[in-house]
Amino acid sequence: MAALMEFIPTAIPGCLEIRPRPRPDDRGVFVKIFHAPSFRAQGLEADFQEDFYSLSKKGVLRGLHFHLPPHDHAKLVTCVAGAALDAVVDLRQGSPTFGRHILVELGAESRRLLYIPRGLAHGFYALKDETLMLYKTTKPYSPDHDGGIRWDSASIPWPDRSPIVSPRDQGLPTLPQFKSPFSWTVQP
Length: 188
Hints:
Blueprint: E1 5-9, E2 16-20, E3 23-25, E4 28-30, H1 36-41, E5 50-56, E6 61-67, E7 75-81, E8 83-90, E9 101-107, E10 113-116, E11 120-126, E12 131-137, E13 146-148, H2 167-170
């Protein structure tokens, strides 16, 4: 049997782009976005506890968000309608990519997903109206452990210098101000 999905390492260790193998037929297409045995075979956390989605209009920027220990979590994200420029920033002290970011375009057409391990900040910019992002997290949301860094403090080349950003996200600390509690551990 062919692999259900392809796992592609990114420039940030532990962060993977995932390309499902769509199954088209005369009715349309069937896409499996999660398969626990495949994730575990890659050494990834696969015990997701919560799923949610966000709907954004073009020009909205959400992020850069994470959960603080002991409620930090891994996250799986995809865009099932519209398109988004997804960003991840490594906040793990001692990581060879600490403070660096990657960008991955997610969208309904590409059907790609992004696996984001603990200790990375995540955000995205909606490239189209009605951009629908799906998220899976390995721990439920905890308002007392919800954190973030400012969207414009990590040298990310966003497509818009004046995006639509929530007041909360505008008030987050910058990357240089943030004292990271996350530590790098060598990946298997």
